[in-house]
Amino acid sequence: MKKHNLLTRTVVGVGCLSLLLTSGLVAAPNSAYAATATTQAASSASVKADKIIAKAKSLQGKVRYKYGVNDTKNFVFDCSSFTKYVFASQGVSLKWGTSVQSKQGTYVAKSNLKKGDLIFLSVGTPGKINHVGIYIGDGKFIHNTIGKSVNGVIISDLNSATYTKRYITARRVL
Predict the structure, then answer these.
(1) Does the global pTM surpass 0.85?
(2) Residue 131 falls in the annotated catalytic set
(3) For a designed S-S bond to 108, which of 2, 52, 130, 170 qualifies (C-beta 3.0 to 4.6 A apart)?
(4) Is position 79 annotated as part of the catalytic site?
């Protein structure tokens, strides 16, 4: 009888503990560690994004746009060599070219953009990715471009009529 009661209590105890662990009422030691690691990684990405944006902003007025150029000594870049250069300043390796950059990292919905995400646009052939910028928050992005009154790094509104119709996708590389 004593053996039966002891066995029953043990089985019930293990079952209750399993139920508590799977319900999340009691955290397993590794889940606390995983949550801390995830928080630290997100914080690290946010700090890195801030540094990347600061670097991009520091290049306003110093960089010229020229299609197909990646001249780090003279600060002459196209849009993708500019993002490549800025991200490299924080140890993030990007390939050169909007098409290849648009396949790096992971897809991000426009509604979930975070600072430091790459945004891809069509500025030539409709629907074809041929321009890249860096999302800086509050619906804005920084990019190296050329236009009627600009040649270099500018901040633009992603929600403007111009860019709303040109937006294609975004990628998170941090």
Answers:
(1) no
(2) yes
(3) 170
(4) yes
Residue reference for tokens 């039966």: 4
Active-site annotation holder among 52, 59, 79, 113: 79
Which helix (H) or strand (E) segment is 156 a member of? Answer: strand 151-157
Number of domains observed in the structure of the chain: 1
- Specify the CATH number for the domain of residue 48: 3.90.1720.10
- The strands making up 118-121's β-sheet, listed across from edge to edge, are 106-107, 167-172, 118-121, 131-137, 140-146, 151-157
**Residue 162 identity (one-letter amino acid):** T
From the candidates 49, 63, 119, 131, which is the catalytic residue?
131
Which is catalytic among the residues 59, 82, 113, 143? 143
pLDDT values of the chain reduced to their tens digit, one per residue, 174 residues:
554 454 444 444 444 434 333 444 444 445 444 555 656 666 788 999 999 999 999 999 999 999 999 999 999 999 999 999 999 999 999 999 999 999 999 999 999 999 999 999 999 888 999 999 999 999 999 999 998 888 999 999 999 999 999 999 999 999
Residue 6 located in a structural domain: no
Structure tokens at 61: 């007025």
